[in-house]
Write a structure and sequence with these properties.
The complex is a heterodimer of chains A (312) and B (445). With 312 residues, chain A is mostly helical. Chain A is built from 14 helices and four strands. Chain A has two domains: 49 residues, no CATH class; 232 residues, MetI-like fold, CATH 1.10.3720. The longest helix of chain A is centred in the N-terminal third of the chain and has 33 residues. Chain B contains 19 helices and ten strands. In chain B, strands 1, 2, 3, 4, 5, 6, 7, 8, 9 and 10 form a ten-stranded mixed sheet that branches. Classes of the chains: A mainly alpha (312), B alpha/beta (445).
Chain lengths: 312, 445
């Protein structure tokens, strides 16, 4: 950062960046105000308001009263909340793991040179471009136990019909299958970018040393694309955690509450039951969960960074 | 000489045109009384909030007629049910809604709107001959309609627009193949459903909603046959009563032994799709879902569908009744003009259009009983008979409470669990323990 001389500006604030003192002058503050106003209006105020609502007993159409920690205590004993939290974590884990696995495999395949590779890559990324609600409607029909094409295909190979999203035991894996179908291409694109940046020399050296394909992948490719994989994990985790449209359009959290994630429960609480106070408390707790998960992911990302021999 | 409206003779065409022109010069519109000063609020602009449905489509289709009749400009907005409910509640609770007229689902929103004081008292307007057509009287509405439209103190807060009775759609071809008659009782209903079920040919005797929330009215409709409602008149839950358990057991039996696999995830749309394929014996749901049955582009059962009144239960004969109404917001500054709009929406002319298109069933008896209106109904006669027959045994199927959605969700989960094999008595006990505090909280504050 360029130095600002105390003689010209009159220093009031000091921060440290890269070990060097940085000085900010009072007549530069007006330039920061628009940004502060925007951040305050769209981030700080909604959150402060959510926090305030979460400590109130407030159902739309009824009078509001201060509730203290009542809403949070209700959450602690709400089995449906804990169940939805578990569904959220399960759904997120599977919706990250499956696209990561298939996306990485697809990237390795598309990294190789073969005829029509460009065309096939284009076809492969098409699901990503579809609107989630349209995807949900199409898959709902495909999953239909009597009319759906999936059971027809299974019948051709002698496998009995499945109930897919219409059964409490198979609903989350079925929803994850849709999520995987749609978002595997994103992982593939990210990993493909990583593979393009991998140098060839270490592989030539490994081949001379007699490393087989698996060893080359395990000890060379994987460590070198790890930062890209972490980026893909972070993007997928954020997407899966906030997933709402596909679940709502396909199952509305059902059968029963078998696929009800926190997002769905929160939405129902706030906008179907109009229990704004309780919904806000749920949003605050969910925010804390997201921050904790983000912290873990950021730590993992730090560890996946390439380091040179000096450890920098 | 016979008259074909789709192929009139030259003379008939000229006669018709002359009659219309004469009516136009006289400033009259068919079905709208001359005693009412329809032009009193000419120049006013009204904002109308509607639920997107075939009913609101009918209103929107004929909106120009109202504007011409009254000189009132209407800005009408129709949004899907869930979104419309959220929008109206949020806006009404703010105290400054952006609309003067609101379309509401009585079976979900009645008590909530009452407690919020969101609808204007329109009793005075109904009694004012300069504002109200003499034919618009309380006695012309089905009893259920007036129950819905009046608040706890008997004050009229809206006008009943469209009623939805639950009927039994049945596949006559499947019944004939097995030599079975239409069931008159719950016992016969179960027997017919079981006799028609043959999983090896992918044929099932019965289908209804299994999806959480959507399934609760199925159970409460069955409960009416045991002469039981979910709450008593004092507001006490009766959901663990022997009758409630018997209705839940019946639901479980039908849905586990005679319904297609995956029915736990079925809302009305999935149930309808299954029935349209011709492999389902009976489908229990609202009368408003009938038009696709007779549409050859959508249905494989055209001409094969019977429409029956709900069979008699062990203790009562009842058809679960739901409905929507249209009212003036308490915050509106154009209440009288808004009332004129509501009156037009429930007028005999609009009711006839709803009925004849199969878009809905008006609450007004004069429309249902009018032979000319009946002649123009495009649905089969048995459908209209089922409508009229259901009206005779109509009973509200959902409790008039604020947390209707929670009621439907909590008991809906219990019913879903029953389809998976859980014990009805245990599930209802658990659901009641869960719902009681929600109900208690709803009337506080």
């Amino acid at each position: 950062m360029s130095a600002i001389t105390p003689e010209r500006t009159g220093v009031t604030t000091q921060t440290i960046e890269g070990g060097q003192p940085v000085r900010l002058a009072p007549n530069y503050w007006p330039f920061v105000v628009p940004a502060l106003v925007v951040v305050g209006a769209v981030i700080v105020f909604p959150w402060a308001f959510t926090l305030w609502m979460s400590v109130n007993r407030w159902t739309l159409g009824q009078s509001r009263s201060f509730a203290g920690m009542e809403n949070y205590l209700r959450l602690a004993s709400d089995a449906r909340f804990w169940e939805s939290l578990w569904h959220t974590l399960t759904y997120t884990f599977l919706s990250v793991a499956a696209p990561m696995l298939f996306g990485t495999v697809a990237a390795l395949i598309f990294d190789a040179k073969f005829p029509l590779r460009g065309l096939l890559r284009g076809v492969f990324v098409m699901p990503m471009m579809a609107t989630p609600v349209a995807v949900a409607l199409v898959w709902t029909m495909m999953f239909h136990p009597q009319l759906g094409v999936l059971n027809y295909l299974l019948s051709l190979v002698g496998i009995p019909s499945q109930e897919w999203i219409f059964n409490a035991n198979t609903v989350i894996p079925s929803l994850v299958a849709v999520e995987t179908w749609q978002w595997t291409p994103l992982v593939m694109l990210i990993v493909l970018g990583g593979l393009a940046s991998v140098p060839r020399e270490p592989f030539e050296s490994a081949e001379i040393d007699g490393a087989n394909v698996w060893q080359q992948f395990r000890y060379l490719t994987l460590p070198m694309i790890a930062p890209f994989l972490m980026i893909a994990v972070i993007i997928r985790s954020i997407d899966a955690l906030k997933s709402f449209d596909i679940i709502y359009a396909m199952t509305q959290g059902g059968p029963g509450t078998a696929s009800e994630t926190i997002n769905i429960y929160l939405y129902n609480t706030a906008f179907s039951y109009y229990d704004i106070g309780y919904g806000s408390a749920m949003a605050v707790v969910f925010f804390i969960v997201i921050v904790a998960l983000s912290f873990i992911l950021l730590m993992l990302r730090q560890r996946s960074q390439w380091i040179d021999q000096e450890g920098k | 000489m016979s008259y074909n409206p789709f192929n009139p003779t030259r003379r008939q065409l000229l006669q018709g045109t002359a009659a219309l022109a004469a009516a136009g010069f006289a400033g009259l519109r068919p079905g709208f009384a001359a005693g009412v000063d329809w032009k009193r609020f000419a120049g006013t602009t009204l904002d109308v909030n509607l639920v997107k449905s075939p009913r609101s489509d009918t209103i929107l289709k004929y909106l120009a007629e109202f504007e011409e009749l009254t000189g009132i400009k209407v800005n009408a907005e129709a949004t899907p049910e869930q979104q419309q409910r959220q929008k109206t509640v949020i806006e009404l609770s703010s105290g400054k809604p952006s609309f003067d007229v609101v379309h509401l689902s009585y079976h979900v929103q009645k008590r909530q709107f009452e407690k919020g004081g969101w609808l204007a008292d329109i009793s005075g307007y109904l009694a004012d001959p300069s504002l109200t057509d003499p034919g618009l009287v309380e006695s012309d509405f089905a009893e259920a309609g007036m129950l819905f439209a009046k608040d706890g103190q008997g004050v009229l807060r809206s006008l009943p627009f469209s009623v939805d009775y639950w009927i039994l759609y049945w596949n006559k071809e499947l019944f004939e193949a097995k030599g079975i008659k239409y069931p008159e009782t719950f016992e016969q209903l179960v027997a017919a459903a079981e006799a028609l079920t043959d999983p090896s040919s992918n044929t099932f005797g019965f289908v209804a909603r299994g999806l959480k929330n959507a399934n609760t009215p199925v159970w409460t409709s069955l409960m009416l046959g045991y002469d039981m409602t979910p709450l008593d008149t004092a507001g006490k839950l009766r959901t663990t009563s022997p009758e409630a358990i018997a209705a839940a057991s019946l639901y479980q039996r039908l849905m586990t032994k005679t319904a297609p696999p995956g029915v736990t995830g079925f809302n009305w749309a999935e149930a309808q799709s299954a029935f349209l394929q011709g492999k389902i014996g009976m489908w229990l749901d609202g009368v408003g879902f009938a038009p696709p049955m007779e549409n050859p582009e959508k249905s494989r059962v055209v001409g094969k569908v019977g429409y029956g009144v709900m069979p008699k239960g062990p203790k009562a004969h009842a058809s679960g009744t739901f409905g929507d109404g249209i009212g003036v917001t308490a915050a509106s500054e154009k209440k009288e003009a808004a009332y004129l709009f509501c009156q037009w929406a429930v007028s005999p002319a609009m009711g006839a259009r709803l009925l004849q298109a199969g878009a809905g069933v008006p609450f007004r008896k004069s429309v249902l009983e009018d032979p000319k209106v009946r002649e123009g109904v495009t649905m089969p006669a048995s459908w209209l008979d089922a409508v009229v027959g259901s009206g005779n045994v109509s009973r509200l199927a959902l409790p008039v409470i604020i947390p209707v959605t929670e009621f439907r969700d909590i008991y809906g989960v219990a019913l879903t669990n029953m389809i998976a094999g859980a014990d009805p008595a245990d599930e209802l006990k658990k659901a009641t323990e869960q719902f009681q505090p929600v109900l208690d909280r709803s009337e506080q504050g």
